[in-house]
UniProtKB/TrEMBL annotation, chains A, B:
In the C-terminal section; belongs to the class-I pyridoxal-phosphate-dependent aminotransferase family. PROSITE patterns: HTH_GNTR. GO terms for molecular function: DNA binding; DNA-binding transcription factor activity; pyridoxal phosphate binding. SMART domains: HTH_GNTR. Residues 9-77 form the HTH gntR-type domain. Keywords: DNA-binding, Pyridoxal phosphate, Transcription, Transcription regulation. This is GntR-family regulatory protein. InterPro entries: Aminotransferase_I/II_large (IPR004839), HTH_trans_reg/aminotransferase (IPR051446), PyrdxlP-dep_Trfase (IPR015424), PyrdxlP-dep_Trfase_major (IPR015421), PyrdxlP-dep_Trfase_small (IPR015422), Tscrpt_reg_HTH_GntR (IPR000524), WH-like_DNA-bd_sf (IPR036388), WH_DNA-bd_sf (IPR036390). The keyword tRNA-binding does not apply.
Length: 482, 482
């Protein structure tokens, strides 16, 4: 386990996560013995107290139990567990393809969704509105309007509101990033940041390596910019395969950038190991390929914020893109980025594309994010998402057919579910819609047919009796189709 | 004079403008007799009362005087008048060129500006902050935050906030446009609207016809999208030359669109005649070239809002782009567009580029713009700009060398000044900067060297004693260089 002093997540939690993953993937089976505390100390170069804390965390999480004089043992899961989604074939990278249909696919998806009354929305990747600090933001906005109304009528400041840029730079330390406020560029969501990053490093016809599966929003951007996408096999447990990427870069010229969501990836919700993050940064630097990081979900980890790829970047080869859309306020559309090596070009593109963002909402966000209230909100939001995610995962395990596969993530709000063979996701999608249930079918996340029996299920909604019934209904639809 | 029933500007004002232009351009010289009221009735198919009202307006404006039993006569101007900027050579269209230096030119311009302390800003194309309804917007925003705080934390509605779209559609009637709220797409300023329009109709390498001179922001967009620009000669009095455009379209294939600012063009502040507007719409429709209209300044006419090109568009070939940046609130960055024939593609591009705009500021703007207070604000703003513009024009006439040329516009906030031969605008720009005075040099508005002895002078600042002194100083810099 690679260890970096600047990671703000306590070491014992990271150690616990390491073993949690081993237990969830079956590397450590029920009734097996955990390594002894003494062995943990030796193997991971941690203190005795850290090793003990990690074990107690796993015990609290119901994964292991202490037996007197014998040490810790792995517990049988309290609910039937599903096998994790299997690892991808890392030799299976696609040929780079120009996306020409994803816009239409997304439009069809949205149009279909709108044709049916909605009873349960498992498609929207957002926490429920009440999980966001609506009153506090309302007050912050009112305060900003009262104290600095001239922000409404004066010309907009370049790159963003100074206090907001300062808060973002300070908050970025939590994922290991050192940046000055001057380096921060405020954008219209992470989506605009990704557009600017891609436009800065690539031209139409160029190839961009992406995770497979990946967020359809990214595929739409690539299509709209006339870029080709090279899908790199990505593990539901560990994220993008560095081996597959290396292989792809040897095979394909003209790859200008890699876009990676290292933390709680969409749709997989996987988190890359620190060692893989370091390797990826080095590989891109060595091969002269820009590394574009989308860290939209990073702050939503059960045990805090994992490190950003950017924290390993010494040369300025990583363009960091982030958003407050999932963490602070879906309705404010605030994003930001660090362009580093490309910051001059990115600044010009931002100016030419949409001019600087309006400052008043930034002032309000800065006001709120500068206080401890934001930390308390994040802690609550993580807890909310964890509870909802585990309830949804349990419902999948309980109701879906036995050979359904699911890797339960340690953060974020998305579940990636592999259906039994022979049950096409598009059919489930359409039948679920008719029952008022929205899910996102696997084909939205790739230009290939690799994910035609996968579903993305969002855990953004509180797990009520209605939602439980909807999950049962969804499982019935899956089972009936077999 | 072409007349359209849906024009909201009273007919007598338009008739007065017609003769105002004739007087200002010397077609009717001082001491010459105006056509008799009876002749006005006959020539323009207007009522006797309309003709009389037009004459009284010109009399109120100090342009003509009534002599008993003899009719109206043109007055000698109360201040020394400058000759208008001459008409362009309409055969002089440039070859389409890929812009590769405008970003750098703009960056250098901004960087130069920031190196010197500022005493008078004649570069910024905005009215002073106090000319915008800061308090009313502050209240509207606070009200929106109180009544609909969920807009901060719920997912954003597609295309824009419903009430804002409805108000924009209603307000668009003022420039002759019939549109339903459903057709309105809210954007991040007019800049984003222009980006989306161009991306919808053209691909990198294509050619776009533009006015010459034109706003450097448009040239930056073209450069950033890899588009070529074909500069069409544009009259400081009547706007883009339809003859020159027709000629250019015959000569150059691959022209995908024409971008035109028909009302108070930047930098010329000219307004196209209604007959030219109609011809332009027909020409583009006939030749299958998209017509992209930028109507940022339309509402800032001394006598109301001139018709939009869009009001002549029956086939959906005109993409209308507009902004509230100059008229309502520079700090809110609200823009919008009507994509018509391309609306599906534009909607997809907007979604891929920046997602829908955040709704709360739109709700606040809708609240304010739905009331008569907005009309009263616009009337005051027009009056403010008119006073400032005439004071600035008088200062140019009084202090600048005799062979300076200037066409005084009837709306907007910009003066386009031709310096005497031998006085390069870049030298004036640099020397003025050292004196703390910012102007925009002509070379910013073209990829050619046609405007190297032109200046754009913004009338956005109230005409105080300091500003008067700065104008005197600017004139000294010009004179000293000769």
């Amino acid at each position: 386990m690679h260890h970096r002093a600047m990671n703000t997540q306590p070491l014992y939690l990271r150690l616990a996560d390491h073993y949690r993953r081993a237990i969830q993937t079956g590397v450590l089976a029920p009734a097996q013995r955990m390594p002894s505390v003494r062995n943990l100390v030796r193997a991971h170069h941690v203190s005795l107290s850290t090793a003990l804390q990690a074990c107690r965390q796993l015990e609290d999480d119901g994964l292991i139990e202490a037996r007197p004089r014998s040490g810790y043992f792995v517990l049988r899961p309290r609910r039937p567990a599903l096998a994790p989604v299997p690892e991808p074939d890392i030799k299976g990278a696609l040929d780079p393809a120009q996306y020409v249909g994803i816009h239409d696919r997304v439009s069809d998806f949205i149009a279909s969704c709108q044709q049916h009354p909605l009873s349960a929305d498992f498609a929207l990747a957002a926490a429920p509105p009440q999980a966001y600090p609506m009153r506090a933001l309302q007050l912050a906005l009112t305060r900003a309007a009262r104290h600095t109304p001239e922000l409404l009528t004066a010309p907009v400041p370049p790159y963003g509101h100074p206090e907001f840029r300062a808060v973002l730079a300070r908050r970025a330390m939590e994922c290991g990033i050192s940046a000055t406020p001057d380096e921060v560029l405020v954008t219209h969501g992470c989506i605009e940041a990704l557009n600017l990053a891609l436009r800065a490093v690539a031209r139409p016809g160029d190839t961009i390596a992406v995770e497979s599966p990946t967020y359809f929003g990214l595929l739409q951007i690539l299509e709209s910019l006339g870029l080709r996408a090279l899908e790199i096999p990505t593990s539901p447990q560990r994220g993008i395969s560095i081996e597959a990427l290396e292989l792809a870069l040897q095979t394909h010229a003209n790859v200008r950038a890699v876009v990676v969501v290292p933390n709680f990836q969409n749709p997989l919700s996987c988190v890359m190991d620190d060692s893989d993050k370091a390797r990826l940064v080095t590989l891109c630097e060595r091969t002269g390929i820009a590394l574009i990081e989308d860290d939209t979900y990073g702050a939503l980890g059960d045990h805090g914020t994992p490190l950003a790829l950017k924290s390993w970047d010494d040369s300025g080869n990583v363009i960091y893109c982030a958003s407050l859309h999932k963490t602070l306020a879906p309705g404010m559309r605030l994003g930001w980025m660090l362009g580093r090596r490309w910051s001059r070009r990115i600044g010009m593109l931002k100016f030419a594309q949409s001019r600087p963002n309006p400052p008043l909402p930034q002032a309000a966000a800065a006001d709120y994010m500068g206080t401890k209230a934001y930390d308390r909100h994040l802690a609550r939001l993580r807890q909310t998402l964890r509870v909802q995610r585990e309830a949804m995962a349990a419902a999948v395990a309980r109701h879906f057919p036995d050979d359904t596969r699911l890797s339960v993530p340690t953060g974020g709000m998305l579940l990636w579910v592999e259906l039994p063979a022979g049950m096409p996701a598009m059919r489930v999608f359409e039948q679920a819609l008719r029952a008022g249930i929205r899910i996102t079918p696997g084909p939205m996340f790739s230009n290939s047919n690799r994910y035609d029996h996968f579903l993305r299920i969002s855990c953004g909604v509180p797990y009520t009796a209605d939602i439980a019934a909807a999950m049962q209904r969804l499982a019935d639809i899956v089972a009936a189709g077999l």
